[in-house]
Amino acid sequence: MRSWMHGGFYLLLAASAARYVSRHGLGDGGLLVLVLALALAAGYGAVLIWPLPRRSWLAGMLAGWLLLVVIAPSFALCAVPLLFAALGELPARAAVAVAAGLTTVVIAAQLQLAERFDLSLVLAPVAVAVIATAAYLQLARTSEQLAASQRQAGVLEERQRLARDIHDTIAQGLSSVNLLLQAADRDWETRPEAAREHVRQAAGTARENLAEARQVVAGLTPIALTGQSLAGALGDLCSGAGARFVIEGEPYPLGGDLDVALLRITQSALANVTEHAAATQAAVTLTYLPGSVTLDVCDDGRGFVPGTAAGEPGRGYGLAAIRQRAELLHGTVTVESAPGEGTALAVTLPTGGTG
Predict the structure, then answer these.
(1) What is the pLDDT of residues 116-142, one digit of tens each?
(2) Burial of 115 (0-12, 13-18, 19+ CB in 10 A)
(3) Which of 41, 53, 248, 305 yields a CA-CA distance of 20 to 30 A from 278?
(4) CA angle, 31 as apex, 26 and 33 as ends, to 5°?
(5) CB neighbours of 280 closer than 8 A, spacing ≥ 6?
(6) Model confidence pTM above 0.70
(7) For the chain, what percent of residues have pLDDT higher than 90?
(8) Averaged over 5-11, what is the pLDDT?
(9) Strands (E), the chain
(10) Angle between helices 92-113 and 54-71 in degrees, nearest 10
(11) CA 271, 273, 278, 279 torsion-angle sign
């Protein structure tokens, strides 16, 4: 809209100058009128090039235009772009006052140019000013409402992101610490060395999740991806979870969002295997394809009926979080499972033609 107004101003300015020269020529002040018109054109264009104070610029443009209209009333045509500039730069009350002043000047100029009084010369500028002002103020109000809605959507999206990250990192880490400490408690009397190893592992997991918590709050790259590739991070994750990790296809850079999503999805999937599946084997396969990447997580655990809440009450967020992550990146999630037959999770994410 601003681009159209800019073009409209220069077109109206040129039309007004052409009208004046055709009627009066360059004599009797005609040259002065052209110089003022060129100065007004230069002043209007200056704000498009340099970051001038907008309201000071607007005041200068209005003063220059008014001077030009006093000398040559035909330049009143340039009022409409200046009206929109005022509406865009000034508070509502000040903008309405400027609109009223512009309309008054336009009516006076039109009556001066007319050979006889015509009511339309009064009503038409008023109608244009009222419609333009009302439309612009309504548009501004709608834009404010849209901005507020977008801010609210951003807040909700950020809450969902934090919920997913907390579930995939802190909650799963605390669950692992709990399992390790339970194992240490069982072995405390009969296998003290094993118990101490469980405690050391629990302490290490707690340290890692403390660092992850700080990263989640800051919204930064996960600790596991700092200083190493996605493949390296997934390899370490699978090694710690006792799962086999395989890469198929020729690896290529995916980008930060995809790397983070695939790591978080794998964390969540392996946490589900550890907590709920009672599996003896699990495998993670990362497949690089032209234009997409696929992550498969399979286990030979107890399985479940897809579409029903798996696991204990209150623990059904994992799969939903995986789907949300995939959908945010325009990906798909497929789950194949049955009671007693294990589970296979497949996540496919587009890579924008990379590779």
Answers:
(1) 888 888 898 898 888 888 887 787 778
(2) exposed
(3) 248
(4) 110
(5) 300, 301
(6) no
(7) 23
(8) 87
(9) 244-248, 282-289, 292-299, 332-337, 343-350
(10) 10
(11) negative
